[in-house]
Design goal:
The complex is a heterodimer of chains A (249) and B (215).
Chain A: H1 2-18, H2 36-80, E1 86-93, E2 96-98, E3 112-117, E4 123-133, E5 138-146, E6 151-159, H3 169-172, H4 174-181, E7 189-191, E8 202-204, H5 210-232
Parallel strand pairs in A: 7-8
Antiparallel strand pairs in A: 1-2, 1-3, 3-4, 4-5, 5-6
Chain B: H1 6-12, H2 27-32, H3 37-61, H4 70-92, H5 94-100, H6 102-105, H7 111-121, H8 126-156, E1 158-159, E2 162-163, H9 178-214
Antiparallel strand pairs in B: 1-2
The chains are: A alpha+beta (249), B mainly alpha (215).
Chain lengths: 249, 215
């Protein structure tokens, strides 16, 4: 029995050694009964203060982050539309493509496409971005589409929180990514890696990241379902004046 | 209770009670984001920031936090600073932020940080808590950079992005994959265990004659 007690003591001591932060200052006094109100109030006050702090820092960092994101988007458009010299941003206003927004409208409320032109102003492709849920959170994808041939010219993941080591292969596994740059036909068809029948619209999915790969393929197909009827109505000619997309290539 | 000096508070976390290599806390980031030195540094920096701020704030407010809700309050404080670190990294180091991804948010559940608040900051003065946090943070950084260094040198043949070997070097890809993290940690712990054992053996050998006399 005493042997057992001894062991018990030793374990306690071990634990204390690990917590050996016990410097000279006061021992926490035996906690008195605390009212529920105080418990709730403490957490509430702490929560409000934390919220305010986050808002303050967010006010400061958001413009920087937005600016960076805009730059990344611009780079991404040129990446998924390889033959393009400049692009114009078109907003979807009343089911038609428009370069300008209705008066007083907020830019962020409108869907948009980026129409790429070559050096002489011919349309060479359309870049579309869209987000849908993946395995963890929303995956933001941008892809280039050739409306004449109905093929893709590229794909880039703008934002994703997919599982490191598995789901993040949708942008780290170049075998997967390169398939979208090889001009696959649309609508895409996801097949198990190696089980394809050689169809031009097949995309080999990543083993171990099926949900994330399916999500990427689904996002592109859904985006095209939505945009194809609009693009088929005809793509506007390049405007004479440069628009936002041409800035700082 | 044993008392410690301010100097001990600071030194302790760096080597003798190194959070990763001795206490085995915070292993998730230590294994996950140490595939390059740059990532290890960014992760250490973010953790260091969260750790120091939380320790200072919690030791300042320890009188106002009722015992019953202390863990919730600590987590709230830690989560707030993690969110701040997340936003600041995204604004000022976007490349690293993208590379670390979800692991930034996961600093909240790094038990190393909560452990220091519960066992140290909630009982000690602000100054001591800051020292303790800095010491532990430095220890965490040393462990992560050590792992990141090994893995980057062997796995990609570079250090902080600068190539070290000639073009004929064949990188050990496994070292930058998750398996390499476990291998590296294993070997580092093995080496530390060996050093510790030798130190103990030597100390015992010195004591031996005395022990014989007393028996």
């Amino acid at each position: 029995m005493s042997q057992e007690n001894n062991n018990q003591d030793r374990i306690d001591v071990d634990i204390k050694v690990e917590n050996s932060g016990s410097a000279a200052v006061q021992d926490a006094p035996a906690p008195a009964e605390v009212s529920t109100f105080r418990l709730v109030a403490t957490l509430a006050v702490a929560g409000v203060l934390a919220g305010m702090l986050i808002v303050l820092v967010n006010l400061h960092t958001k413009p920087i982050i937005d600016k960076y994101k805009a730059e990344q988007l611009q780079l991404a458009v040129y990446e998924v539309l390889p033959d393009v010299e400049r692009y114009d941003t078109y907003y979807l206003v009343n089911d038609a493509l428009s370069l300008s927004l209705p008066d007083g409208a907020k830019e962020s409320e409108f869907k948009r496409v980026y129409i790429g032109r070559d050096a002489i102003g011919e349309t060479r492709g359309v870049a579309i971005s869209r987000g849908e849920s993946g395995y963890q959170d929303v995956i933001m994808v941008i892809f280039g589409y050739d409306p004449v041939a109905g093929t893709l010219s590229g794909m880039k993941i703008l934002d994703s929180k997919e599982t490191p080591g598995l789901g993040d292969k949708i942008f780290k596994d170049m075998n997967f990514v390169d398939q979208f740059f090889a001009g696959p036909q649309t609508p895409l068809l996801g097949v198990k890696s190696g089980a394809g029948k050689g169809q031009p619209n097949e995309i080999d999915m990543i083993t171990g990241a099926t949900i994330s790969s399916k999500a990427v393929i689904g996002i592109i197909n859904h985006a095209l379902e939505e945009w194809k009827p609009i693009l088929d109505q005809g793509i506007p000619e390049a405007p004479a004046e440069a628009t936002s997309g041409e800035v700082a290539q | 209770m044993r008392t410690t000096t301010a100097q001990q508070d600071f030194i302790r976390g760096i080597w003798k009670e190194n959070p990763v290599l001795v206490q085995m806390l915070g292993l998730c980031p230590a294994l996950a984001v140490t595939n390059s030195v740059a990532n290890a540094l960014a992760m250490s920096g973010a953790t260091f920031f969260v750790m120091s701020c939380s320790s200072v704030l919690i030791s300042t407010c320890k009188r106002f936090i009722p015992h019953e809700v202390r863990i919730s309050a600590y987590i709230l404080v830690i989560a707030t600073f993690v969110t701040l670190a997340d936003m600041l990294l995204q604004a000022y180091a976007p490349a690293q932020h993208k590379e670390l991804g979800a692991f930034i948010a996961l600093i909240v559940v790094n038990c190393m940080i909560l452990g220091r608040q519960e066992s140290f900051s909630s009982k000690n003065s602000v100054f001591r808590s800051l020292l303790d946090a800095i010491g532990t943070g430095v220890g965490f950084t040393i462990a992560l950079v050590m792992m990141g260094g090994f893995r980057e040198i062997l796995g990609t043949g570079s250090f902080l992005g600068y190539p070290l070997f000639g073009p004929n070097f064949e990188p050990w890809v496994i070292m930058v994959l998750p398996a390499g993290g476990f291998l590296t940690l294993g070997f580092i712990l093995l080496a530390m265990g060996a050093i510790e054992q030798r130190r103990k053996d030597r100390a015992e050998r010195k004591e031996e004659p005395v022990a014989e006399v007393s028996s």
